[in-house]
Structure formats: C-alpha cells, structure tokens
Amino acid sequence: MKVVWEGVMPAVTTKFTTEDTLDLDLFLKNIEAQLKAGVSGIILGGTLGEASTLEDGEKEELVRATVAHVKESVPVIINIAEQSTKGAILAAENAQQFGADGLMMLPPMRYKATAHETVTYFSEVARSTDLPIMIYNNPVDYGIEVTLDMFDTLLKFRNIQAVKESTRDITNITRLRNSFGERLKILCGVDTLAFESMVAGADGWVAGLVCAFPEETVAIYKLAKAGQFKEALAIYRWFMPLLELDINPQLVQNIKLAEVATGLGSEHVRAPRLPLQGEERQRVLRIIETALANRPVLSQLTYS
Q: 3-state DSSP call for residue 2?
C-alpha cells in the first residue's frame, strides 16, 4: 500500500519469550493497541526492535505477521541498518519480498562514511528498489549527518521521500522545509522534541514511548496538528518524564518496562541486553508509577 509519511509511526519493540524466541502473540497484542489508538504506520526492526540481534528469519516472520495483522490498514515499514551496500540492497529486496510497504534507512553501520560515500550508499539502495524510503538522520547516535546538500542530491530519487529528523536541532525542520518544501516529508525522531517539532511544521512522529502509551502519543500529535496547543502541551508535560526514558542507552529496557506496566509487553530482551536491575530499575519504575498515577483522561478530548 502507499506510504503517507505523516502521523504517529511507532518504532515497535520486538517481543521475546523466556526461551528467547519471538513472542508473536504478545507482539500482535501491542500492534493491535497501536492500531486502535490511530497510528499511521508500523516501523519494525529499529533500535527499539533490537534489530542488531535479530536473525534474518525472525525479521521475515515479524514483517509477514505484521502485514497479515494490519490488513493494509496502515503501511508496514522495516528499518535497514547494514554494514555494507551489498547487505543493504539485499535487505531492501528481502523487505519487498516479505511484504513491507517501505523502508527506514540508516547510513552505513560501524564505518563512519564520508558524505560522498553516504550519498552513494543511499543512492545505490534507492536505485535497487521500488519501495519508498525514509532516511534516518541521527548524527548524535550514529556519527553521520545527512546535510541539506546531501539531501539535495538524494532527492533526485523519487522513492526517497522522508526523513526521520533526529539531529536534536529543531531549527533543522525549518531549514529542510525552506529547502525542499513538501518534497521531503519530515518526521520527528526524538520523543522529547515531538511537540516542538509539530509546532515547527513536522509532518509526523516516529515514536518510542508510544509502545506503552499509544493513545497519549496520538493525542499529542492530533491536538498539535489541530492547533490545540494548550491541550497538547498539558499531555506532553505529563508525558515528558516518560519520554526521557527514550533518550537513554537502556531505552529498550526502559520502554519494555513501561510496556509491562500498561499490559502491552514483557521485559524480555535479547542478550547482551539484560533487564534493568538495582537502583536504576527502581528509578525507572518510580517514573512509570508516578505517570500512571497521574495519567490524563483522554475520553473528553475533541479535535477541532
């Protein structure tokens, strides 16, 4: 189905059993909660999805199960984070074969490519596939920034359509919009900058804490887009301590702990990750418990 790069797109977690196998029942329970909340797409195999530890067969199983479950109600996007151009092209081919509707792409992993190498990497993948692509621009965590000049070159490929904007610089949204207008859709990729990004004109939000709190995430987006900033900001302020769990090296463990609290997941992670322990676990639990005790009532919300 066609990908419309807007709205809330959860970067979903991958659910595991105690035997370290995929827990598809729990995974699809979470997907259903996302759909009921009104998300605009599902993104598989990102950092939150623990993609670096997934086997190819597991990625196929997740894509096929998600595509079958959503029944074309929303597009299914899979992340590509590969070490080689050859590997990225193969991943794109596999994604299309498995039934994915689009790709989210990081620059090459492990090697800090030059601007020319990065543009060539994205270009070769774009040339190899018909699937629409959202480039994940996260120089803070991955060390490579996709600059305006680089986008200017890349946008000759019609299937490069969107950017997951994670530079942490809100003004970059304005620069992108001034440079490329509506040709490049902009989705916020940092939970703690989501409201500000919507006000600045972002088209959507690739979200993390949505995995545990889908309704609140979608409400913030819808209210902000409707110009109801006061209402959106009230929920956002409540949400902020939780959103800060996403900008942390243990974001996977943090968000999975939040999923447990809302009945949408388990704590099982794949080694070398391990569940939170000690004082850090207690700190995160306190944040979650405080948020749940003060959870906003959304039933009275209307969107003008």
A: coil
